[in-house]
UniProtKB/TrEMBL annotation:
<keyword id="KW-0472">Membrane</keyword>
<feature type="transmembrane region" description="Helical">
    <location>
        <begin position="29"/>
        <end position="50"/>
    </location>
</feature>
<feature type="transmembrane region" description="Helical">
    <location>
        <begin position="263"/>
        <end position="280"/>
    </location>
</feature>
<dbReference type="Pfam" id="PF09685">
    <property type="entry name" value="MamF_MmsF"/>
</dbReference>
<feature type="transmembrane region" description="Helical">
    <location>
        <begin position="102"/>
        <end position="128"/>
    </location>
</feature>
<protein>
    <recommendedName>
        <fullName>DUF4870 domain-containing protein</fullName>
    </recommendedName>
</protein>
<feature type="transmembrane region" description="Helical">
    <location>
        <begin position="158"/>
        <end position="179"/>
    </location>
</feature>
<keyword id="KW-0812">Transmembrane</keyword>
<dbReference type="InterPro" id="IPR019109">
    <property type="entry name" value="MamF_MmsF"/>
</dbReference>
<feature type="transmembrane region" description="Helical">
    <location>
        <begin position="191"/>
        <end position="211"/>
    </location>
</feature>
<feature type="transmembrane region" description="Helical">
    <location>
        <begin position="62"/>
        <end position="82"/>
    </location>
</feature>
<keyword id="KW-1133">Transmembrane helix</keyword>
<feature type="transmembrane region" description="Helical">
    <location>
        <begin position="232"/>
        <end position="251"/>
    </location>
</feature>
C-alpha cells in the first residue's frame, strides 16, 4: 500500500507542466504594452522577427489596433494642418478662410473625442496583455486585419525585398533635405518645418521597422534556399555598434547637445549602407 502511494506520488511529480507555459512568450505578452508606447512600430518589428505563433498572433493583433489608433490620430492632425493652411493663405473674408476654420473646428471636436480614445487604447492594451498572460491572443474590437489584407494582396508573402529597396531609395532623399535645411539655417516657413518634421518621423519609423524586414527576409531565404549563406546578424548589429560609438564620441569628445540624435542618424546611415550590401549580395 505504501509502495503504491509512493509510486503514484513520484509519477505525479514527474509529469510535465502545462504545455501552455512553454507556448507563451514574454514578447507575445508585452507586445501590447510596447504598442501603447510606440504605436504600431514595435509590434511590427516583433511580428517580423518572431518565430513562435503565439508571439506573432499577439503582435499581429497589437499592430492592427495601433495602426488604426495612430492612423486616426494622424488623420486628425492632417485635418488640422489643412485648416491652418487655408486659414493662413486664404485672404480675409473669403470662402477659403471659412473652409480653414471649419477644418480647425472639426479638429477641435475630434481632439476632444480623442482623449477618450486614449483611455480606450490603454484599457484595450491591458486587456490584451492579460489575455496573453493566460495563453490567448485577443483580437482588439473594431480593428481591421491590416496584415491579413496585405498578405492577401501579396498572395500570402510580403515583398520584403521591395521594402528594403524603398528604404535604400528614400533615405538619401531625407538626409539631403535635412542637410540642405541645416545649411540654409533652418526652414523659413511653416511648410518647410512641416516637411522636415514629417521626414524625420518617416526616418525614425522606417529605421526601426526595416531591420525587422531584413531579418524576416533573410530567414525566409534561409528556409527556401539551401545555398543561402548570408547571416542577418552582422547587418543589424554593425549599425547598432556604430550608433553606440557615435553616441560616446558625440557626448564625450565633441560635447554634443543631442548625442542621441547624432547616434540615431549614424545608425540610419550605417543601416542604409548595410541594406545596400545585403541587397547586392543577394544577387551574387
Amino acid at each position: 500500500m505504501s509502495n503504491e502511494h509512493r509510486s503514484t506520488s513520484t509519477e505525479t511529480q514527474s509529469q510535465p507542466g502545462p504545455t501552455l507555459l512553454t507556448e507563451r512568450t514574454l514578447s507575445g505578452i508585452f507586445v501590447h504594452l510596447l504598442g501603447l508606447g510606440t504605436g504600431f512600430v514595435l509590434p511590427a518589428v516583433i511580428y517580423l522577427v518572431a518565430k513562435r505563433d503565439f508571439t506573432r498572433e499577439n503582435a499581429r493583433n497589437a499592430f492592427n489596433w495601433q495602426l488604426l489608433f495612430t492612423g486616426s490620430f494622424s488623420a486628425l492632425l492632417g485635418i488640422f494642418a489643412i485648416g491652418l493652411a487655408f486659414e493662413s493663405w486664404a485672404p480675409d473674408g473669403t470662402i477659403g478662410q471659412q473652409i480653414g476654420r471649419a477644418f480647425i473646428l472639426v479638429f477641435a471636436v475630434g481632439f476632444f473625442a480623442f482623449t477618450f480614445a486614449v483611455l480606450i487604447n490603454f484599457a484595450c492594451g491591458l486587456i490584451a496583455m492579460a489575455k496573453a498572460i493566460f495563453g490567448s491572443a485577443w483580437s482588439y474590437p473594431l480593428a481591421p486585419d491590416f496584415l491579413g489584407w496585405i498578405e492577401a494582396k501579396t498572395d500570402g508573402s510580403v515583398t520584403f525585398r521591395t521594402v528594403l529597396i524603398g528604404y535604400v531609395i528614400t533615405v538619401p532623399v531625407v538626409f539631403a533635405y535635412l542637410l540642405w535645411s541645416g545649411l540654409a539655417g533652418g526652414p523659413e516657413s511653416g511648410l518647410g518645418f512641416t516637411i522636415g518634421f514629417v521626414l524625420v518621423i518617416y526616418l525614425i519609423i522606417t529605421s526601426v521597422i526595416t531591420p525587422g524586414v531584413l531579418i524576416r527576409d533573410a530567414r525566409m531565404n534561409d528556409k527556401s534556399d539551401a545555398n543561402w549563406k548570408i547571416n542577418w546578424l552582422l547587418y543589424v548589429t554593425s549599425p547598432l555598434a556604430i550608433a553606440a560609438l557615435t553616441y560616446v564620441l558625440a557626448a564625450v569628445q565633441f560635447g554634443s547637445e543631442n548625442p542621441s540624435g547624432d547616434a540615431f542618424y549614424a545608425f540610419s546611415g550605417a543601416f542604409w549602407l548595410a541594406t545596400i550590401v545585403y541587397l547586392v549580395r543577394q544577387q551574387y
